[in-house]
Amino acid sequence: MRNPLRWILGAGLLASAGLLPAWTATGDRLDLSQRDFRLFDNFTQATLHGNLTPHPNWPGSTDVELAAWKAGAEWGSLPMGLGDGDPSQDQVGSGDANFDFLWNGNAAGIGSANDNIISAIPGSSGGVLWFTELPSSDGWRMRVYEDLAAWDDGPGDPVPGALDFQGVLTHELGHVLGLGHSSVPGATMSSVIAGTGVAARSIEADDQIGLQSIYGLRSRTLKPRIDGLSGWTVPGATVTIVGANFSPAGNEIWFNNALADGGAAGGEPFVLSGIASPGGSEIVFTMPPGGAEDGAVHVRNSLSGDVSLSEAHPFRAGSIVDTVRLSGPESVSAGAVVALGIANAPPSAPFRVLASARGSGSILQGHPFDVGLPVHNLGGGRADSTGAGGFTSPPVPPRLAGRTIYLELAAASGGQLFDSNLVATTVL
Ligand SMILES: [Zn+2]
Predict the structure, then answer these.
(1) Which partner from 28, 202, 327, 428 sits 20 to 30 angstroms from 114, CA to CA?
(2) 330 and 417 belong to one structural domain
């Protein structure tokens, strides 16, 4: 069965006006074997490849892939990472149900009708812009008639005349997970969506209630939850996942599969299994030599069914896990100061800001950092009780004009060091 999308621009009258407005369900539902989805990037429009700026909350994906990932993540049970990276909404990850999609990156082909792959299709079919092959319970596929409309990958508003890929995909993924159309104006699952579709990126209360009626309200006591990662994600190194509701034994860690085939195999997560968590709030594992790629990580505990899989958490393979978020300007004038913003540090932790002319990595006090040697200590401060803060550097020496300086934050808490992402600033 094909579920066609015929886009209606502008506001319209709802056919069911007068009835109680509400979500509807189709009877489809996705068990844990069908939560994965991928994108085959045979899209040719430049406006679907316009966003080439990586965002630290979404490792490894930009442009149309990032738009697709965020569309699925919005249905997720908890905010994806810090929930940021989408200017149209406060947080991405609003479902609060026992449901999470598994973004698995790129596919190398369109796949079969049950391989959960999104791709473009040439030609046209009677004004249909996009179709989703259902039922979804045994797998699904989406095809986009790219020639019929202009599409934009965001993250800002679409260019004039284009439709928002992420917003439309959020709606279509709602069908995949089992929702029909809603008669609530403004709901993501409304059959009439106004404007470019950007507003559909963010699900509304009616969409949430529909999702929760299929999969249940997110269990606070049974469903695993990931609060953070620390360590170094290179092969053989030790990584710690901190969270809740892990099982004493038999946990699994689900990674984005590095296999990018055109069929079902690459849609399966790369899984580490048989992992213990004696206290239920911490998982320690050794990074495997390969198989996982940048994207997200999930924990599955030893329970069964929807409740056993955690939300997605950002994961960058083969690098240092950046615990603290550091933000700064792309450029600074020689002789001026650099103002840095700090988030996600351990509460009230003292910190230092490190600077280097290189971003080639170093080990300081046994902890891996992104800054290269030699490292200069610019001074420090203390994060507030929410882990946020700021730092103003000394004036940048004029002799550094024309060069790039690399800045990283080191925070200490409970005898452990935590590092941030690297900020690269060009000195003008
Ligand atoms: Zn629809």
Answers:
(1) 202
(2) yes
